[in-house]
Design a protein that fits this description.
By secondary structure, the chain is an alpha/beta fold. It is built from four helices and 17 strands.
């Protein structure tokens, strides 16, 4: 990871489109356009895990995000895994904390504005990270308008896959509680109704994917659903020492125009 420090002096700027690859030597001179803003209104947390309720169109090759709310920086690489490249701008919380902690007793000096620009690149299962610290301000950003989905697109918060129903049979088909049993339990436990789930046939041996929009749930229950369903899908979980790694969960967008995808 590369850390550089810059003063926010007037600089010559170039407009770089989101589909281009960013590197630290280019980022400092960039005007960020069509930036997707994530604020406190878009974030839910149980104190360990986080949920962002903003989806990103797959038409954007390299999304650029500005996350104004404080979230653990070490969790940022987990967001929007469907994109191989991602640019994230955040306030420099580490610097702000250091200034606050080192204040003399009774001091009230304000720290200078500071931000960090992260670039995440995933290729062949490997994640590369690059970052740039800007002392004195933030990069120039032009926020994107909220995009609307087409008639054939839906936003989903959870996906679960099943392999063959035979030859050999995917153990998930018999894993307890089954998908239907878990849904029934969750609805009764939380006094909700989960609607508009989608099913996609993926093969001749019963392979399938289930997509959950979860639009009828408030954000805290969406996060709860994701965490509990992930846990119950662990095969032979009672025989394992399970270590839960904190994560930021983000929705994705799928096209349901295929005749293989049905609402159930």
């Amino acid at each position: 990871m590369i850390f550089l420090s810059l003063q926010s002096c007037a600089q010559k700027t170039d407009k770089l489109k989101s589909e281009k690859l960013y590197h630290s030597e280019k980022i400092k001179d960039s005007i960020f356009e069509n930036v997707i803003e994530i604020t406190g209104r878009n974030i839910e947390s149980n104190g360990i895990d986080y949920l962002f309720n903003v989806s990103i169109s797959k038409n954007i090759k390299t999304p650029i995000l500005f996350i104004s709310e404080r979230v653990p920086l070490k969790l940022l690489p987990t967001i929007y895994p469907e994109f191989s490249k991602l640019i994230v701008v955040v306030p420099n919380w580490t610097y702000y904390d250091e200034v606050s902690q080192n204040q003399p007793k009774g001091g009230c000096a304000e720290p200078m504005a500071s931000s960090i620009i992260y670039e995440f690149n995933s290729e062949n299962g490997k994640l590369q990270k690059d970052s740039l610290v800007i002392m004195g301000g933030f990069p120039e950003m032009k926020m994107a308008k909220r995009t609307t989905l087409s008639n054939t697109e839906i936003e989903i918060f959870y996906t679960e896959s099943y392999g063959s129903s035979c030859c050999p049979k995917d153990l998930q088909w018999d894993n307890k509680p089954t998908r239907e049993e878990f849904i029934d339990y969750f609805e009764k436990e939380n006094n909700v109704k989960i609607k508009n789930t989608y099913y996609e046939s993926r093969g001749k041996e019963g392979e399938a994917i289930f997509y959950y929009p979860l639009k009828e749930l408030p954000n805290n229950l969406i996060l709860k659903f994701i965490l509990e369903r992930d846990f119950y899908r662990i095969i032979n979980r009672h025989t394992k020492d399970i270590i839960k790694i904190p994560k930021i969960y983000t929705p994705s967008v799928i096209d349901i125009s295929s005749n293989r995808i049905k609402k159930i």
